[in-house]
Specification:
This protein has 10 helices and 21 strands. It is of the alpha/beta class and 392 residues long.
């Protein structure tokens, strides 16, 4: 938008029939746009009747016209306000971590039901590495920049937002855009920073909390007394003894090294031959049959990733005999309403556990935004335990 005249600089150049210039009038907002190599001014409304020009709607007191002349072009170019910019990590082309570059981009705009967050930190997720490779595009209409969760301070709110206000310290579940200085977020996906957690470390919580709560509790209905393979009063399988030791310290009941042990046999041993009640799996095809074999009667397998491939050969008889349920879902492409419902449940059920010290974020390392490529290299090496955070 351009604001012309009335500011001590220049008035509006306007041209009536025959190209005769009219004198400058009071200031008004106009839209600048280009047509070929020429710059036009689009007068949307005027505070006074435009002489010799009839309003298009026949009722408005304003005028609507396009104007071009060398004088108009000069005014347009001199008055154009450049859009505000921020720094963000851009995927310059699908590829390895080096394709991630920090560039200046336009600030995000917010809708009526959104808030603008100045980012304090953003956390890496495996999905970010897939997006970088061109394998996991953002939902239509979402930010093209990676980053599925963040923490920060609210800088602006949409006119329909009720709960949040400028200055609130929050964390948020995102569809993208976390690797930036600012990000716009639907208000229903915003959470207060949990008690006892720093603003920076709060970035490590939303994605994992929403993923686990929605899949394990809301959909797989894990209840007290049941066993869970991966986490939380759990059996846990990993291929690294150091990681297993950390998980044991965090509360895992049994830890299994899948590189040295048959995890199906160990699961049966630890459960008296019954199997576990719920499995949360991000391996996919390579573990599908073993996961089925590890489940108890009425057991539930929930798949959230395919690190071991997407194709598997499976004996289906176990599903029928033990009444097993197999589900799969992601989080990023869910509807805004569904995400808001999940976030609400997380705040109601997980936030009190964090405040009580029963659950806590585990942060492995912080990287500046300019070192996003190095952060991705670390994530893909799997030589870490806990979250990796980017700091703008």
């Amino acid at each position: 938008m351009c604001l012309i005249g009335g500011d001590g600089s220049r008035g509006r150049y306007d041209h009536g029939p025959g190209g005769k210039p009219r004198p400058p009038i009071k200031p008004q907002r106009v839209t600048c746009y280009n047509r070929g190599s020429k710059c036009f001014l689009k007068y949307v409304t005027c505070p006074v009747q435009c002489p010799q020009v009839q309003p298009k709607d026949g009722k408005s007191k304003g005028c609507f016209l396009d104007c071009y002349s060398p004088k108009c072009e000069a005014v347009c170019r001199a008055s154009t306000v450049r859009p505000a910019v921020m720094k963000a990590v851009v995927i310059t082309t699908p590829g390895d971590p080096q394709v991630l570059q920090v560039q200046e981009v336009e600030n995000p705009e917010i809708g009526d039901n959104e808030v603008l967050i100045r980012v304090e930190a953003s956390a890496l997720n495996r999905a970010d590495t897939l997006q970088r490779k061109g394998l996991h595009p953002p939902p239509k209409g979402s930010s093209p920049y990676p980053g599925l969760e963040c923490s920060g301070i609210i800088e602006a709110v949409g006119k329909a937002v009720v709960r949040w206000k400028v200055g609130d310290q929050v964390c948020a579940l995102l569809a993208g855009g976390g690797y930036a200085e600012k990000v716009s977020v639907p208000a229903g996906q915003v959470l207060p920073v949990p008690s006892g957690v720093s603003l920076k470390d709060a970035a490590a919580i939303p994605e994992v909390a929403c993923t686990v709560w929605s899949t394990v509790f809301m959909m797989s209905r894990l209840t007290a007394g049941e066993t869970f393979l991966v986490n939380f009063r759990s059996l846990l399988s990993s291929g690294n003894e150091e990681k297993l030791a950390v998980c044991k310290d965090l509360g895992a009941d049994v830890c299994i090294n899948y590189k040295t042990e048959d995890f199906v046999a160990r699961v049966k041993e630890e459960t008296g031959g019954k199997g576990v009640d719920v499995i949360l799996d991000n391996i996919g095809g390579a573990y599908f049959q073993r996961n089925i074999d590890s489940l108890n009667v009425d057991g539930r397998l929930f798949i959230i990733g395919f690190q071991g491939g997407t194709v598997a050969e499976v004996n289906l008889s176990g599903l029928l005999a033990r009444r097993l349920t197999v589900q799969a879902a992601g989080l990023r492409n869910r509807s805004l309403e569904n995400k808001a419902a999940i976030v609400s449940e997380v705040e109601k059920n997980v936030w009190p556990a964090i405040a009580a010290g029963k659950v806590k974020p585990v942060v492995y390392k912080y990287f500046p935004l300019t070192e996003a490529a190095e952060a991705h290299q670390l994530m893909e090496s799997s030589n870490h335990v806990g979250k990796i955070l980017l700091i703008p």
